Amino acid sequence: MGITLFKNCKFLFVTPEPDGIKSGLSVAVEDNKILFVGTEDEYRAQHPDKAPYTVIDCCDKIVMPGLVDGHNHLCNTHMNISRAFPYDYGHISEHMLTTIHDPYGWLTRESLYDISMTSAINALKHGTTTVENSTILPDTAYEAMEDSGIRGILAPQMASSFRLDSDNLNWKQYLEKTRECIEHYHNPDRRMTVAVHIHDLWDCLERLMDGAMELSEQYNTRFVTHFWEFKNAVDRADELWKEEGGAFAHYMRKGLITGKSVLFHGSMLREHEIEQIAAAGASVIHNPDINGSNCGNCAYVPYMLKMGVNVGLGSDYGSLDVMSAMKLMQILHKIMPREEREFPYHKPFYAATLGSAKAYGLDHQIGTLEAGKRADIITIDLKKASHLLPMCTTLTRVKPDLLYFLFLRNCAGTTTSETMVDGKLLR
């Protein structure tokens, strides 16, 4: 593919750290990896035999690592239609059957492909280069992700409390299908990771949970699940396992919360539970949009960060985007009536890049712009994004962390000028 040079970046988000934003640097890409980060003169001096084949002038652009959507359902976009039906988010089974599982039953393989592809394109347009996709019909979902060019984390959904006409498997068949997906599709070096995914603890037999964790350990891949998202589900589980000290204590004893566990939402987690998650090394994927709009709750992220929990960021719906999730993460916690409300300006960007990448064991490949890492890169043209104009290069020398605040305050819905995944320009 030759050398692609992102030349003279006005703002280069190298790493998601307080001093990680630079100005005037360039990024060289060779094949699917970042070859060099530094000034253009330094590049030409160090690589005189590697003249750029493609040069992208970034003197008026922000250049940053592609965003990593730590939790999404690419096939869920059509479920917005289900809002036409009565539902009660306070009653977990009524809500799920009305607004989630019934709409899943509408899907054919063709429609799931089309909706997943449309959602993947939406993600790429808004700067996401890696997406976790919790999904039914995983073979079809894989096709859509592969064809879109996005880097994927395929999570075939397993549950035992319901059966779908479109995905009519029992719990043993779900485990076998997940095993097949791992063996056929899991190849992080070629843009696809497969995670073991039970839908939620409340709608899975414990035999399914145990089998899923065994698969995760056997194939050394992540164990992922919706976790402590709805108050009603937590209250019911606590009542079921009250003799063991509650549901969380029960699942800890079962060994479901480990360094391989990625927990979606965590909105109802209490402080002592957050502390145990931190000690176990599990990750939490924060989904502020869907938690606020659907569940009426918000994960205690400031306390999670204080305790050292690795927090990633997700959009949860194919029609949503991580740019908007970053802004919501920045503002929501300041108004929550809790003791801990603050975290450093760069943390939402960290969660949307390195945090989500680390959750899936991909931080050695993606999440920062450093030589040797995969070339997942996005650019934003400031000439076409007037809402970002408060950013000024002087701050890179005076108070670089303030640039995160200025970017995140205004970034919701921002689209990219270029989107590169694994060294290939897709936009």
Description:
By secondary structure, this protein is an alpha/beta fold. It is built from 15 helices and 21 strands. The chain has helices spanning 40-46, 92-106, 109-125, 138-148, 171-185, 206-219, 231-240, 247-254, 271-280, 288-295, 301-307, 322-332, 347-359, 395-398, 401-410; strands at residues 3-7, 11-13, 21-22, 26-30, 33-38, 54-57, 61-65, 67-69, 72-73, 128-135, 151-158, 192-194, 196-200, 223-227, 261-265, 283-286, 310-313, 316-317, 377-381, 418-421, 424-425. Strands 8, 10, 11, 12, 13, 14, 15, 16 and 17 form a nine-stranded parallel β-sheet that branches. Strands 3-2-7-19-20-21 form a six-stranded mixed β-sheet, with no helix packed on it. Strand 11 (151-158), helix 5 (171-185) and strand 12 form a beta-alpha-beta unit. Helix 3 runs parallel beside helix 4, helix 5 (171-185) runs parallel beside helix 6 (206-219) and helix 12 (322-332) crosses helix 13 (347-359). The radius of gyration is 21 Å and the shape is globular. The mean pLDDT is 93.
- Rounded to the nearest angstrom, the distance between the terminal CA atoms is 16 Å
Judged by helices, strands and strand pairing, the structural class is alpha/beta
Sheet with most strands: 9 strands, parallel
Radius of gyration: 21 Å
Work out the number of β strands: 21
Shape: globular
User: DSSP strand (E) fraction?
Assistant: 15-25%
Overall helicity: 25-40%
Mean pLDDT: 93
